[in-house]
Design brief:
This protein has one domain. The protein has 8 helices and no strands. The protein starts with a helix and ends with a helix.
Length: about 150
Amino acid sequence: MEILQTLTDSPSLPALFLLSFLASTILPIGSEWLLIVMIVQGFPRDQLVLTASLGNFLGACTTYLIGIWGSDFIIRTILRIDDRQLSRAGKIYEKYGVWSLFFSWLPAVGDPLCLLAGIFRVGFVRFSLLVFVGKFLRYATLAFFVAQSTGE
């Protein structure tokens, strides 16, 4: 808990980037609270939104790469899915699941969506566009509402 106190006492853009990155991997932490603290302390909102979005996006890319490089292990060993089931799931994901990446910012489901995108080899450009836009809009919306409530 000392780390949280340190981040609150002397927040910085690198700290926000790191926390946003880690929050978008499989670690169960959030970065929104630090963004709020920094807005209240007067940091430039555009820099905060961009920093948090970029960190969160790159964390999602890490999860995506885990899906690509670890897919055989994840599919065969952890999930115990056979080739027929995998083919069926891939067709369903391709038809409906790719657009779900726009919602990769949601708690609890966002990280698995990015992992699935890697497992099913979603094109990186499509992945990047959907994930970054979703994450950017989340941080921008949060920053807007915090600024409105604090009168900035």
